[in-house]
Amino acid sequence: MWKILKKLKKREWSFVFISLIFIITQVWLDLKMPDYMSEITKLVETKGSKMIDIIEQGGYMLLCALGSMFASVVVGFLAAQVAAGLARRLRGEVYEKTMTFSMEEINVFSTDSLITRTTNDITQIQTLIAMGLQVIIKAPILAVWAIIKISDKSWQWTAATGVTVAELMLFLIIMIIIVLPKFRILQTLTDNLNKVTRENLTGIRVVRAYNGEAYQEEKFEKANTDVTRTNLFTSRGMASVFPMMTLLMSFLPLAIYWIGMYLINDASAPMDKVQLFSNMVVFSSYAMQVIMAFMMLIVVFFIFPRANVSAKRINEVLGEKTKIHDGNIVENNQKSKGTIEFKNVSFKYPDAGDYVLRNISFKADKGETVAIIGATGSGKSTIINLIPRFYDVTEGSILIDGEDIRDYSQDILHNKLGYVPQKAVLFKGDISSNIMFGENGESLTDKEKAIRVSEAIDVSQSREFISKMPKGEDSKISQGGTNVSGGQKQRIAIARAIAKNPEIMLFDDSFSALDYKTDRILRSALKNRSHKVTSIIVAQRIGTIKDADRIVVLDEGKVVGYGKHGELLKNCPVYLEIAKSQLSEDEIRKDM
Amino acid sequence: MENYKFGTAMKKLAIYCKKYYFPIIFAFALSICGTVFNIIGPDKLSEVINKIAEGMMLPTGIDTDGVLKIIKILIILYGLGFVFNTVQGVIMATCTQKITNKMRTDISQKINKIPLKYFDQTTVGDTLSRVTNDVDTIGQSLNQSIGTLVSGITMFFGSMFMMLKTNWIMTAAGVLATIIGFVLMIMITKKSQKYFVRQQEELGRLNGQIEETYTGHNVIKAYNDTHREITKFHEINDKLFESAWKSQFLSGLMMPLMTFIGNLGYVAVCITGAVLVQRGDTEFGTIVAFMMYIRLFTQPLAQMAQAVTSLQSTAAASTRVFRFLQEEELSDESGKNTAIDTIKGNVVFDHVKFGYTSDKTIINDFNLEVKQGQKVAIVGPTGAGKTTLVNLLMRFYEINEGSIKIEGVSTKDLTREQVHSMFGMVLQETWLFEGTIKDNIRYNMHDVSDEQIIEASKAVGLDHFIKTLPKGYDTILDDKTNLSSGQKQLVTIARAMVLNAPMLILDEATSSVDTRTEELIQKAMDQLTIGRTSFVIAHRLSTIKNADIILVLKDGDVVESGNHGELLKKGGVYADLYNSQFETA
What we know:
The structure holds 2 protein chains of 2 kinds.
Chain A lengths: L1 H4 L4 H36 L5 H50 L2 H7 L1 H8 L1 H16 L2 H14 L3 H48 L1 H6 L3 H27 L1 H26 L3 H50 L20 E8 L9 E8 L4 E6 L5 H7 L8 E6 L2 E2 L5 H7 E4 L8 E2 H5 L10 H14 L3 H6 L7 E2 L8 H14 L4 E5 L7 H12 L6 E5 L3 H4 L4 E6 L2 E6 L1 H7 L1 H10 L2 H7 L1
Parallel strand pairs in A: 3-10, 3-11, 6-9, 9-10
Antiparallel strand pairs in A: 1-2, 1-4, 4-5, 7-8, 11-12
Helix pairs in contact in A: 2-3, 2-7, 2-12, 3-6, 6-12, 7-12, 8-10, 8-11, 8-12, 11-12, 16-18, 21-22
Chain B lengths: L5 H11 L4 H37 L6 H48 L4 H6 L2 H20 L1 H22 L1 H48 L1 H6 L3 H27 L1 H26 L4 H42 L21 E8 L8 E8 L4 E5 L6 H8 L7 E6 L2 E2 L5 H7 E4 L8 E2 H6 L7 H10 L3 H6 L7 E2 L7 H15 L3 E5 L7 H15 L3 E5 L11 E6 L2 E6 L1 H7 L2 H7 L6
Parallel strand pairs in B: 3-10, 3-11, 6-9, 9-10
Antiparallel strand pairs in B: 1-2, 1-4, 4-5, 7-8, 11-12
Helix pairs in contact in B: 1-11, 2-3, 2-6, 2-11, 3-5, 5-11, 6-7, 6-11, 7-9, 7-10, 10-11, 15-17, 17-18, 19-20
């Protein structure tokens, strides 16, 4: 929590300081009011006092009330500024930090958790700061000041107040110890309830196909019962909190009058008696202020633990060290362009025992196509992920245009690459904004951009469906691209890579969502472009890769075959096996 | 936000809570009593003060016994107030939890009773938030707002009654001051509402931006779009800051304003009281009592205002819940008692016509006769109606015209449950739940032995992999276990194997496994499909070369049909599709 507070800027600290002044003013005014109250009481009681005096005292009291309100409005303004300001800064920092993360760090936290940390967790902090500035600072000042004001009146009364405060604290601490942990459990149980429901909803066809309705309902009932039982415990427990507070707050004045009665009786001089009586009335109203102050503090105790957990989670993100760093090459002026070479590359995931890739070596020259094929889990996608440095190699090196990719600044490296992921990702906007995505170091005029987009649409075989859309290239894409089909998404993602005009294209099984025909036309359109581009293609279909310049056959992270389609059919058993599963004997014989 | 009428929504909610009327009314009674005790309190307390004040000037001293007697009464009153209010709270909490529990159960059961059509039109998140958020909102306000409202109203009228009983002029003065304060408060609330709405909207936009860029992180990196996204984020973040601090500030104004209203009423009462005392119209004691009543009078107003706001969101929430609970259900089939003794696997599609909506027909006039043990493959471009056919076969949707007959019996004459139990089904989207691998394979088939599960896993080639996992078949599948999409698919195939149904449906079941694994599965499947009728939808044509009938679908019509050899010879759509996988680019 403290680390988070350190992030407050000078301006905000001065806001905090100013609000401190206003809080003190407010407490002073609040504590002044009972004085006027007792003054009014006295005047009313005294026969023959003038009307004007009462109005005067009433006026003063109203002034105090107005002043107090004004002060708390100012404090409220400053608190809102500081809290929302801090939230804005934290959110910005967490977001920027997350954007620098590589896949490795993202996997440490998981995307869902990062989203919560950037949103809900920060809202928690904002609430705590806003409340805190008004309450945490005010309560102790109010308590101490009020106690000072009354403590010299009579120790018996002070003791009564003290006992009440102690009882209140004891009660609330017990509640916090018993009930608060249950609230945390409740969170997990609610998550579980959510999970079971989500499960039923996402698998609704399977559930029905298996007649699994009763099974799901039974599971839900269990989660539901758990939630209800814990909820019952907490809400029954909380039911006594407010009545208890009312009880204690009603008992205190009672105790004060009770004690006061004996004190007054014991006093000998009539003047002392009057003084004691007036003290008693004033004391009871101050004592209430003391109790109020403690109650305010308690509220903070209820929200502090949650905010503290949030603060910890935010700090985890901010404190995470990014493992991918920029290299020194910041200009795209390498002599050879479009070459890529893997030199004895091995890779294992952090903390994992076993290597995913071992000793991978292959090379692609400008304009060449290298294909990677292998069974599910053989490490094909990992090879692609190493090239844009989503992960860094564990051993060995990858060279692009003759330089180790770790020597480039990431911007320059990425400018050389056109990456098409396995699962197409589209962003909210329109089709052309999705195709002309990102910055690749070129400054193009609007006209040039339009030409690029148009070419990319043609090559990626997207023209047909885009021209059918009411607004063509300007048609809206909703978040996550939910308004276009899987195959269309994939083609837009391919168009994105084409429009970038990269030196090297990376296709991570990007053709699998297309039917064979579109797949073939698209690849030949790519090949026939005037712009010669190097391609690394991960695929499962033999048809997609058989005309590649070189094919890397992977099996359990190792290269078991390297060469052309015809060669591999002859000398690579794994490749032959894959081919057999997809092609007929005739076709294989023809290619051999 | 769905439209709702406050009255109707609350009425529905009230009817739903019928079973708990008695305890709720009892709780209300307790709450009223408890509040009444709290109203009598100040009256008694002022007696104490009066007795002390009177007594201290008398030579006899204070009437301690008299005072003690009142104090004893007060202790009992307050004590009873505490007990009553606590018991009230416990009763309300219990009722609330029971009601929300029932509500969740009802929603969960309802999910399995409404047509799939509903889920095509709504998102998972929407239904999910009815189970959790909406029910929680209802629970919270039942628990708190209703209780507050009851005690608030009692307090309000009680103190009003006590004040009027004592002196109406002072009452008027006090109430007037309070009204002025409240007009102010309503004005602020109105104004702040605008910022709250704006804050909510901007928060939504920010969440959208965060979600999109975090999930598309890879692409954003690879395309150097990070800087632009960060700029976009800051723009939204800055706007959010503006509305966030404004709404935070305005909502923070309530408390000080309330305190001020209290003070205003207090002074108003004092001054009017003083005038009246001087005129000799009333006594000092009245003022003391009034000072307390005016506090009691203003205090519940704020609480009630809050309760009304939260009741408003309750109305919105219960509208959503009840709308879901009242969705049209699948037709009742308890009257059906047709049964087929042995299912051999003869299926006939007879002039089947279907559309998800009445204005758009997907399947125009589909006819097919499948003999026992045949393997039927359905191919064709996306949107041709392949999955729709399967959905109709499973009776996930009801056909518009024509009929589907199994062993000569129309599926309409059978219960959905019967139809489902005839088919084993594997879908393209793998569906696994958090639980052990064993549980995932067994699912709801309790009578399946562990041996059968292991056997099925061996058949799909999963056994070896599972054994390498630290806990083998008892490994829990959750976000952390790294099962590839192919392996996940294998688990669902094993599930279908264990089910051992007379017929099989494979809807793109092997599209996410590699071809070698696919061949393994294929072998296992072929073993499984011996003598069983099976329907296979496939993307990869290699999977279905050996099918007895291949149907090529386009726009809901069969454009070609026959076996692999026949179709190739024909040189039509199928041949074109098939050959394109070998042509060089």
